[in-house]
Amino acid sequence: MPSTPRTEAPLKKRLVGLSMLLVVAGLGFGGYSYWPAMPDAPRWMGAGDDTPRSGGTFVFHHESNVRSLDPHLAYDELSGMAVRLIYDGLLDYDYDSNLVPSLAEALPSITDEGKTFRFRLRRGVRFHPLPGLPEGRELTAEDVRWSMERLLSHTTGSPGFPLYKAIEGAEEFHRGDADHVTGIRVLDRYGIEFHLTEPDQTFLNAMAMTFAYPVAHETYERWGDEANLHPAGTGPFVFDSWERGVDLRFSRNRHYWRPHHPGPDHMIFQENLQRAVAFMRFLNGDLDAIHRQTTPDYLLIKGAEAWAPYRLEFPKASVAGIGMNCEIPPFDNIHVRRAIAFAIDRRGWARARAGRLAPAGQLLPPMIPGYDAELPNLQVLDLERAREEMRLAGHPDGLDEEIVVLFGEGETSRFYGELLQQDLARIGIRVRIRQVNFAVYLDQTGKPHTVGAFNAGWNMDFPDPSNFLDVLFNSRSIHPEHSENRSFYRNPELDRILDTARSETDRERRIAMYRHANDIVAHDAPWAFTYYPMSLEAWQPYVKNYRPHPIWSQDYRDVWLDLPRRRASRSLFGTGRPRNVAATLFPFGGLR
Amino acid sequence: MIQYVIKRLGWAIFVVAVVAVLVFLLMNRVGAPAVATLGPNAGPQQIQDFKRKNGLDQPLAVQFAAYLGVVPCVRQGSRAFKDHPDDPGYCGLLQGDLGDSFTHNEPVARVIAHRLPRTLLLGVLAIFFEIFLGVSVGILAAVKRNTWFDTGFMATAFLGISLPTYVTGPIFLLVFAFFFGWFPVGGYGEGFWDHVYHGILPAFTLAIVGAATYARITRSEMIETLRSDYIRTAKAKGLGPSTIVVKHGLRNALLPLVTLLGLDLSLLVAGAIITENIFAWPGMGALAIQSIVGLDAPTVMGVVLVFSAMVQVGNLLADLAIAALDPRVRLGNEPS
Fold it and tell me: Is the pLDDT of residue A283 over 80?
């Protein structure tokens, strides 16, 4: 039977269609072939003048948002960044992590066997404009006393209170049993003295924290609960505005007490900027510094030779691990905890994260006194010993029940969870990952008998081993809620060592005690330590006098801008790729 | 008509109320807002003060009743409570009070009033792109039906419908903002025209899916209309092709698009949440995500209520517009 005849399109029409198809395919292929790679060199360079000077606007960012501009309440990295632009402390840290005077003329004189600290303030330091005082006024010792008492008052509810309760009369004042703190004495207009109940070697560190930065009482009297939105300090930048979740703006303090302190006329701190967008803005020259990247962006900036003078990768004074609640089975058994510590392949984790972390086998990071380079291999990958510990724990074939490990949000946390699953499966422990919001994480891990295991981490407040050991493992850090000792690890011997070390005035003996405490924690494994995070920061070539600070994150107080900046290349794609077709065809970026 | 509008408004209020209950319950069963707001190192006293200030120390039912405004205020930080602590007034939805944002430290209504115009600007730009692109391409495809033009554009439209904004957004940002430098890499800018300039790329991203849908519907409606008897009559009368297409054809083909426009509002709202975050556009969508992540329940409630009210009003306006445009359409129980 003859088939139904097909309707043929006219030859001309078919040829046109075919030509169109070829053109589209050609364009697609051509476009793909010539599609530019990400630029691997700065687009903008400085004017080439090395004389420090003021001017321009410095723009930086973070992927999260600032919580508070009240120094007494702010206790997170971002808020600290903003607070340090507006305020100064009596003491500060130099780039070698040494304490140096700031608003104080010199380091305090210490008497009474390390219990009395006497400060002299610099003369002529002025507050930013205050309510009713558009020219500000001079900072005096009375301001320091008022600020410290506000910090210590229970009505303020400062999370920093425990750091200062060694001041004589602080607890009575906090309870409301006294009108003033007896251990804080104003000597004269510029002199102030702090008397402690017992020697505390961390007191000066505490005085360098943002909690102790002097504030002006006029601000709080005028604005009350909203003083947080009208901050006025003595710092290098004056607060202009803050649209929550969007950006904060600052102007240079033209009456700053430090002579010859050049800086940008304005600063913009952009909040809630995703890493990928921030990176594009940075390469574009819209952001002047960047500090966190996605893995591809990290590899790009790390591998780009042209960025080498304008980037720095360094270990952060932080530690991460798998925390285990020592009150909840099976983690109440030291052998299970040690088995887990022996089963984690820390080098594998570092490889999986493209080298963005350094393996950790103990609590203290290498830059903190007390780090034990000779620490016996208590927490390293050793599957034989891991299996032996499981046998000692009475689980030679692994655990019958899977363990639930709490992780924070995000893909990176999930990734760590999966690495842990792989590692522990080799000793017969099945892991279920439970990801929760950070607030839920903090809430649940801070309560006794609630969470068995969790992905733990700690960022240093000040460069002293007590800030790790006392906070995370002293039994005094256990509370019915919001415990900092989230593994609920209790060891009377450790408590005794830490308490003694805190007041020990001989530095060598003190460090030796902390080293011993560090070894105990590594041995008992309330945490199976995993890694020390690394940080890669980069800044534009025209940003001068910046290097990452060992204590303060993104500390841009001393930068100045070598303006006017100039394009490094006519190409849109940086100096590294001058033969770029798309750049030739679309030169619009040059207009920006 | 009036009866219909009242009935629809009643229905809209019911839907918004259900949304309010669900979101309130969800937001108040998740996590610890005090810790999320104050940070991991907040002291117990600080947390307790926060709870008292925001009424979180009260039972959930009391909190909800106070939020609605049917029992006196329990938020000690509110004006109603501060003015008369012994006999506080009411501070809920019925009094027009959306509460105080945990993270913004100011009334939710003020936060929303600040952010909403930005999302509306993005929405208006997106709707403009949707209609302009969608209708133009749809008409051309209908007029040139079964040609390479028709096939090419409809294939592109199909691609547009298939690609979600979280895919197109980063690609557009990378290509048009970063590589070509035609637009800023996200942000909002300063000054009205700068806002518009910054809004073009996110609005275009938001409009892609809708424009593709508009193009397909316009095409099919136009083809149907162009086959009608009255179009044939118009041709017979000797009218020019553009008059026939625009004046006679398009007018009738547009009716389904009005319905689509009403429904589109919900898509734009949902899209804005993703798009604003990709482009760092500080509008309601970005606010929604930040508030959810920060467990800022009053702000989440406020954003959701405003969004759901917008969708309800949009749908109602679309119904009314159809009735006004087409006399054959009767609303509610009106006799035909």
Answer: yes
Q: Does domain A88-234 have CATH number 3.30.70.1170?
A: no
Q: What is the pLDDT of residues A205-251, one digit of tens each?
A: 999 999 999 999 999 999 987 888 899 999 999 999 999 889 999 99
Residues of chain B with CATH 1.10.3720.10: 116-325
Searching chain A, which residue's CA lies closest to the CA of residue B50?
A: A157
B181 to chain A: closest CA residue: A589
pLDDT at position A6: 52
Domain B116-325: CATH superfamily is MetI-like (1.10.3720.10)
**Architecture field, domain A318-534:** Roll (3.10)
Contact B105 A20 (CB under 8 A): no
Chain A residues touching residue B275 (CB < 8 angstroms): none
Specify the domain boundaries for CATH 3.10.105.10 within chain A.
318-534
The amino acid at residue A472 is: L
- Ranges in chain A annotated CATH 3.90.76.10: 88-234
pLDDT band at A578 (very low <50, low <70, confident <90, very high): very low
- The CA distance from A157 to the nearest CA of chain B, in Å, is 4
What is the nearest CA distance from B3 to chain A, expressed in angstroms?
43
For residue B92, give how far its alpha carbon lies from the nearest alpha carbon of chain A (Å).
Answer: 22
**8 Å CB contact between A517 and A471:** no
ipTM over 0.85: no
DSSP B13-67: HHHHHHHHHHHHHHHHTSS-HHHHHH-TT--HHHHHHHHHHHTTTS-HHHHHHHH
- Cβ–Cβ under 8 Å, residues B131 and B258: no
Q: What are the chain B neighbours of A228 within 8 Å (beta carbons)?
A: 105
